[in-house]
Amino acid sequence: MKNIIDLRSDTVTMPTGKMLESISNAQLGDDVFQEDNTVNELQKKASQMMGMEDALLVPSGTMGNLVSILTHCPRGTEIILGDQSHTFYYEAGGISAFGGIHSRQLKNQRDGTIKLSEIKSSIRIDNVHFPKTSAISLENTHNLCNGYPLTQNYIQDVIDISKENKMKVHIDGARIFNAAISQNIDVSNLIKDADSITFCLSKGLSAPVGSIICGSEKFIYYARRNRKALGGGMRQAGIIASAGIVALENMVNRIKEDHINAQVLAEGLEKIDGITINKNDIKTNIIYFNIDEHRSRSKSLLKQTINKTQYPYEIIMNDVSFLEISPNRFRLVTHCGITKDDLGIVISEIKSMIEH
Ligand SMILES: *Cc1c(COP(=O)(O)O)cnc(C)c1O
After folding, report:
1. Could you give the C-alpha distances from 83 to 16, 43, 105, 112, 251, in angstroms and in order?
2. Which of 160, 243, 313, 323 would you call most buried, defined as having the most Cβ atoms within 10 angstroms of its Cβ?
3. SS3 79
4. What is the DSSP secondary-structure string of 251-284?
5. Cα 174 to ligand 1 centre (Å)
6. What DSSP state is assigned to residue 299?
7. CA distance 40 to 57
């Protein structure tokens, strides 16, 4: 079978040979008893990289955000979220369903930020009518906002406001290494003074499964209990953690290649008549573009579009697949499975998708 150039997401990345090798040699134990040395090693390494006291392995980014927010926010309190945030959009309403946590959705600007003035003015005063504002969650890089990275200055400003108001700051850093590398800043500086972060091993870092939460020792102590309550306490989880260690050791620095490839794609797409994209918006590995509405799309090239009644559609062409996120708006994500040689093919197939 021919290999499709799969730009649907960086989650499609497969474990590297080195990961498979390390999985087969991993030292294992029961991680609910905290006796899996490989998990302990991964957590230690992750917390050091993030400059935080402690860390916890969880099965997914979704659980990482849920566990973190459950740990910060008592039932009936309010968390501030961007209206384009992954936690608001794509996590099945977990914080409300399992935590009884009320979300206050504030408008995300196109660079993934929320205006500081809006954050300030939406923090609740002490009044019997109001839920207490307990936390804010920031997304970095911002998936739905062009993969934009938040800057250290912006994060610091949000932390300052939050501290003044005794609120916690969580960072949904599913792609935090993309954010750090694109700005040439050490990841621990980028997230300095945040109360917690979740990041994914299973996206651009190419590990098969797993995300990490980092925070203070005390925070992780309570997070571990919430993880258990949600069924995320895993036994010989060193199987997963060993690939995560390889991910942190070998896969972080190469992410810059994904950003270069994304730039090349954006430049190629910008030249196609009928496509709207601003290549200056492409800062990391996520590329959104629009096909002008009046352009009909060549149906013959679409081998199939799965899930036809609901976005996102999967666009599967001869050699390339990607997502249509909303009508006429498409997303490509570069990752270690995409090579320089693939880029020309991607551009020419997308060009042929538009009937001229
Ligand atoms: C992918 C993603 C998550 C969730 O990660 P899963 O491992 O897919 O559950 C959370 N936040 C953002 C911004 C993401 O892109």
Report:
1. 35, 31, 5, 10, 31
2. 243
3. strand
4. SSTTHHHHHHHHHHHHHHHHTSTTEE--GGG--S
5. 5
6. G
7. 9
- The three-state secondary structure class of 5 is strand
pLDDT at 355 > cutoff 80: no
Portion of the chain with pLDDT greater than 70, in percent: 95
Ligand 1 centroid–CA 8 distance in Å is 14
How many A from CA of 192 to the centre of ligand 1?
21
Which residues does 93 contact at the CB level (< 8 Å), separation at least 6? none
Q: Is the dihedral of CA 275, 280, 282, 288 positive or negative?
A: negative
Distance CA 136, CA 79 (A): 5
- Listed residue (313, 338, 251, 349) closest to 18, CA to CA: 251
Distance, in Å, from the CA atom of 31 to the CA atom of 307, rounded to the nearest integer, reads 38
248-290, pLDDT tens digit by residue?
Answer: 999 999 999 999 999 999 999 999 999 999 989 999 999 999 9
On whether the CB atoms of residues 133 and 78 are closer than 8 A, the answer is: yes
Q: How far apart are alpha carbons 21 and 25 in whole angstroms?
A: 7
Q: In a mutational test of the pocket of ligand 1, which residue from 203, 284, 323, 335 has the highest number of ligand atoms less than 8 Å from its CB? A: 203
Query: What is the rounded CA–CA span in Å between residue 150 and residue 141?
Result: 7
User: Tokens 């498979």 sit at which residue?
Assistant: 20
The model's pTM is 0.96
- Is the separation of the CB atoms in 219 and 196 below 8 Å? yes
Atom of ligand 1 nearest to the CA of 60: 7
Which of these, 318, 342, 322, lies nearest to 332 by C-alpha position? 322
More confident residue, 144 or 356: 144
Neighbours of 186 (CB within 10 A): 14
User: Hey, what are 37's tokens?
Assistant: 């040395």
- CA triple 8-203-36, angle to 5 deg: 150
Tell which atom from ligand 1 comes closest to the C-alpha of 62. 9
